[in-house]
Amino acid sequence: MSKFDIEKVERLAGLKLKEDERERIKRDIDEIINYFDILKEVDTDGIDPLVYTKWTRLTLRNDEVHTGLTLEEIKKNRKLFGNNFFRVRRIIGE
Amino acid sequence: MMDITKLTAYETVKRIKSGEIGVKETLLSYLKKIEEREDLIKTFILIDRDRAIKKAEELDQLEHKEGLLFGLPVAIKDNINVYGYEATAGSKILKGYVSLYDASVVESIKRENGIILGKTNCDEFAMGSSTENSAFFPTRNPVNLEYVPGGSSGGSAACVAAEEVAIAIGSDTGGSIREPAAFCGVVGLKPTYGRVSRYGLIAFASSLDVIGPLSKDVRDAALMLNVIAGFDAHDETTVDIKVDDYLDTLEGNIKGKKIGVIKEVMDFEVQKELKDALESSIQKLKGEGCEILEISIPYLKYALPSYYIIAPSEASSNLARFDGVRYGYESDGAYLREFYENTRTEGFGDEVKRRILIGTFALSEGYFEDYYLKASKVRRIIEMDFENAFEQVDALILPTTATTAFKLNEKKSPLEMYMTDIFTIPVNLAGLPAISVPAGTDKAGLPVGVQLVGKWFEEALLLRIAHHIEE
């Protein structure tokens, strides 16, 4: 029994695979996830997870105003609608 | 007549500055090479001849030839933003997206009067080891067209190897600069995490991604690192510590330096010629007065599974932004969710979808502790292994890859493909600097690479040692 419920994960990831694609990809991923089991051999009790290397420091920026992208620039990549909004598909009623 | 495209980047700039060759003359030599070879090798996704020529003409007019890269043609991997050019990262989902700003590294290259010649092909979102995952076309290895150039910065490695450009920029998350450099017979430098700004790099795995050069020799890598290294307020993970003049520190002896040979590397199957190349590099170092020590990285073999949980986890989060609403590929659908799903399913290729799914799974409720958290703890142990090693030695030496380049379309399962990165991935997990240097060829004539790993932020010594072993 595979613990990888592909349809559930697809929903979480915002993907919807075609049936033949799903089968192929699930087969690959099952193999990869099985391979991950080798990590169980490592005793990680009392070990802190490493998310960023030790050199990374959180720093504060000066509270200064900077100019960002202009509407004209943004419009180069997508036509905007109405009062300069992005248009998205219907959300309610699905 | 001298063939300008044979010159190193360093030599090219020197000769341009002395007036021996012109900027436009240099550029045209490279454009001619591109014309001759590009159809076969296909390294570029985008070439802008007109803008490059215009820039070259402007530079030729200048009285004072200033800038570390004055007049030098540079290629940029397509996952890095260059103002006014499409940046696809090798993906259909970003087709049509035009960069509205320069990445910090691009800004630095322009500031030093380098000329951006074009954008190079790569595996989609830098996920791959052969450049076959590009949504557009595969790139071929200039040394032998039947073989892959490696990946994911395959276009950047191939265009330098093919002498289509003087130097190129790539990115390295798990080996994506060093592996293609080794496969194509060029130098590939992955700087310390935090040494070079990632601002403007299309993120794959933010705690691992690093930008670096692919070049004809070690001196050229040092030259480019001089240009791109340093703190950047746009990238909070860059570290504000002294940047050396890497050209200045390149010369000088390495007598008495301690070099570690990692015992566990030989637990893996390594092609004979690569072992031989490693051995002859070790002999060279001995000849230079280095002391060679056997070092243990006990958890080396756990780096690969740890990476293939962490990197896809970060990718699943980073790639959530590609939804078709604001830029790039746009599918259809009556409702928003359907539209998102259609856009993403059609826009992403197989390998990217696989990694998004693996990452989403590893971060999901019920599996987070067993996968993402476990992998991050193993990552800490691997970092500690390297810390211990670097208490005893100044640098480590190991093969860049376990084999030389493989054939295009050679059937490999995703997991087999992941194994390509066994010797490069541990370095990314620890955030260390490393360089791949050409070290001869195998019996089929394919390039062999040797990898050196340095201490955090000690690129100066790393480059100096590399300079001593390069052919």
Enumerate the strands of the largest sheet of chain B in spatial order, edge to edge or round the barrel: 1-3-2-4-6-5-10-11-9-7-8
Distance between the termini of chain A: 33 Å
**What is the string of SSEs of chain B from the N terminus onward?**
HHEHEHEHEHEEHEHEHHHHEHHEEH
Radius of gyration of chain B: 21 Å
Estimate percent helicity of chain B: 25-40%
Query: Percentage of helical residues of chain A?
Result: 25-40%
Folded structure, characterized:
Chain A has 3 helices and no strands. Chain A has helices at 6-13, 19-36, 71-74. Chain A is flat. Chain B is α/β, with parallel strands linked by helices and 471 residues long. In chain B, helix 9 (303-318) packs across helix 11 (350-363). Chain B is built from 15 helices and 11 strands. The radius of gyration of chain B is 21 Å and the shape is globular.
Show the helix and strand layout.
The complex is a heterodimer of chains A (94) and B (471).
Chain A: H1 6-13, H2 19-36, H3 71-74
Chain B: H1 9-18, H2 23-41, E1 44-47, H3 49-61, E2 73-77, H4 104-111, E3 115-120, H5 154-161, E4 167-172, H6 178-184, E5 187-190, E6 210-215, H7 218-228, E7 258-262, H8 272-287, E8 291-295, H9 303-318, H10 336-347, H11 350-363, H12 369-392, E9 395-399, H13 414-419, H14 425-430, E10 434-441, E11 447-454, H15 459-469
Parallel strand pairs in B: 2-3, 2-4, 7-8, 7-9
Antiparallel strand pairs in B: 1-3, 4-6, 5-6, 5-10, 9-11, 10-11
